[in-house]
């Protein structure tokens, strides 16, 4: 089991790495356990969402007017899922794709015994 400071430091390191590469933190998906112990100030203006796994949603502009989104697991093991959305995709379609990515991440964490 991680100490709260370790979880906070790891999330902070992930956020700093992504921000250096032009990504913006949009949402933090947190378990109740993590939410109760992590320093919320590291998430700036990102939405904090209850989840059954710990992960961070990042977004940035991509080539050809696309928007890239990446879902990064908060874990020592580097694992992320990526999707690029066309400029004309509806927010409803984007939400559906992001939900599917969250389900894939959930399946991954369960297969790893987290």
Give a description of the structure:
The chain has 114 residues and is an alpha+beta fold. It has one domain (4-111). Helices cover 39% and strands 27% of the residues. The chain has a five-stranded mixed sheet with strand order 2-1-3-4-5, sandwiched between helices. Strand 3 (55-61) and strand 4 (67-73) form a beta hairpin. The mean pLDDT is 91.
DSSP strand tally: 5
Uncertain ranges = none
Q: Main β-sheet, in a few words?
A: 5 strands, mixed
Count of discrete alpha- or pi-helical segments spanning 4 or more residues:
3
Structural class, by secondary structure, is alpha+beta
**Would you list the SSEs in sequence order as H and E?**
HEHEEEEH
How many domains in all? 1
Strand content: 25-35%
Shape: globular
User: If you average the pLDDT, what whole number results?
Assistant: 91
Distance between the termini: 10 Å
Q: Which bin fits the share of residues in helices? A: 25-40%
Round the Cα radius of gyration to an integer and report it: 14 Å
Widest sheet, order of strands: 2-1-3-4-5
Outline of the structure:
With 114 residues, the protein is α+β, with helices and mostly antiparallel strands. Helix content is 39%, strand content 27%.
Write the layout of secondary structure elements.
Elements: H1 4-20, E1 24-30, H2 32-37, E2 47-50, E3 55-61, E4 67-73, E5 80-85, H3 91-111
Parallel strand pairs: 1-2
Antiparallel strand pairs: 1-3, 3-4, 4-5
């Amino acid at each position: 089991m991680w100490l709260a400071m370790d979880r906070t430091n790891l999330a902070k390191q992930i956020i700093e790495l992504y921000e250096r590469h032009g990504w913006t933190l949009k949402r933090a998906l947190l378990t109740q356990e993590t939410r109760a112990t992590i320093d919320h100030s590291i998430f700036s203006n990102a939405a904090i969402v209850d989840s059954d796994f710990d992960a961070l949603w990042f977004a940035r502009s991509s080539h050809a007017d696309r928007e890239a989104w990446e879902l990064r697991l908060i874990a020592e093991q580097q694992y992320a899922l990526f999707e690029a959305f066309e400029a004309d995709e509806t927010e409803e379609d984007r939400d559906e794709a992001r939900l599917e990515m969250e389900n894939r991440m959930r399946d991954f964490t369960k297969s790893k015994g987290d």
